[in-house]
Amino acid sequence: MGTRSERNHRKLSWRLPAVLCAVFLLFTVLACTVDRGAFTPQAVDKASGNVLSAQISEAQTVGFSAVNLAVSQRGGYRPTLYKASNYLGYLCILTAAAFCALAAWQLIKRRSLKRVDMDLLLLIGVYALFAVLYVLFEKLCLNVRPFALDGEIEASYPSTHTLLGVMIMGASAMYLRSAQEKRGFYGPLSIALMVIGALTVLLRLLSGVHWLTDIVGGILLSAAVLSIYRTLKA
């Protein structure tokens, strides 16, 4: 059960995750309801950025439309940055796959799930939660992208690449930081992961395939998950 001070400490440690989850949910509601404005996704060629047609048949709506439309119209679609952000996204996925392989190796070598590094199992849990959230928001489709790449309308909220860059790479970096005492090179490697994650988010925003609120929502959701992960690790 623990002492009263220990119980109070545990309660306090869960306050930040609870607040961040509440902030994300509130922002999501606002992004879906406040200043909901109409727009028509422009069909563009994914590779070249050339316009395929003047418009898609059905008009769509987006929240915080004044801000979102202003940012989108100023930047436009940038295929080179879109491709670069995709490559970085693949690197994020490969990073997650490497840690999953490490967990599998520990399981095989130690022949017991209980003997696998608990922090590593928690990290795999973050990856699993990312997969669940990805499927969930693809089904909900709260927003669609400002540009229809190759004529296809796709869900955009929250930005998946933002989740990859912040949630996946952030959690991976946190795991390495906690293991830094055992292996000295883990510190610089964790910094490298954070830099890659930050570039993934930045390039995704500048590519024009997401609304500003998609990026902000992805950051808030990732921050909530990372806070939960950090609390569980402690």
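(ticket continues) Second input and output from the same batch:
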Amino acid sequence: MVDIISRSDWNARPPVSRQGTTWDARTEFIVHYSAGPTGQTPRQIQDHHMDGNGWADIGYNYLVDVEGNAYEGRGWLTVGAHAVGHNTSGIGVCFIGSDGDASDAAKTTIAALYNEANRLGGKTLTRRGHRDVNPTSCPGDDLHSWLHNGMPVD
């Protein structure tokens, strides 16, 4: 079980709209990075997604900071806006930071979210980096390598 900081606890704005999905439709776990400073907050990312991109809400289902805190984005069964063509099938988890910034604590939490998604879905989701499904450098070389080496944590 992962301790997840709720939307109300990080002062999330209400979504403009929401689209639900089912565990049957979920087949992937897609890791991202924010490509910004580790001091970014989920609310700053949400503001950029909603005000800058015109999205209905923060794009990710969950976010993880360098301290290993997990934040609820859209949640387990709300369609995200994180990977074109993979928003219904994929649970999008964003590390808040840039390539090489992901701490052991952050990686441990991302792995715990993956394990929780598998438990809740009753199946093993395919692990992917954003670059595996869209033309981007996200989630950076460090997280991409870690992800494809089995997400080892100490």
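Agent notes: The chain has one domain: 23-148. The longest strand covers residues 28-33. Closing as not reproducible unless the customer responds.
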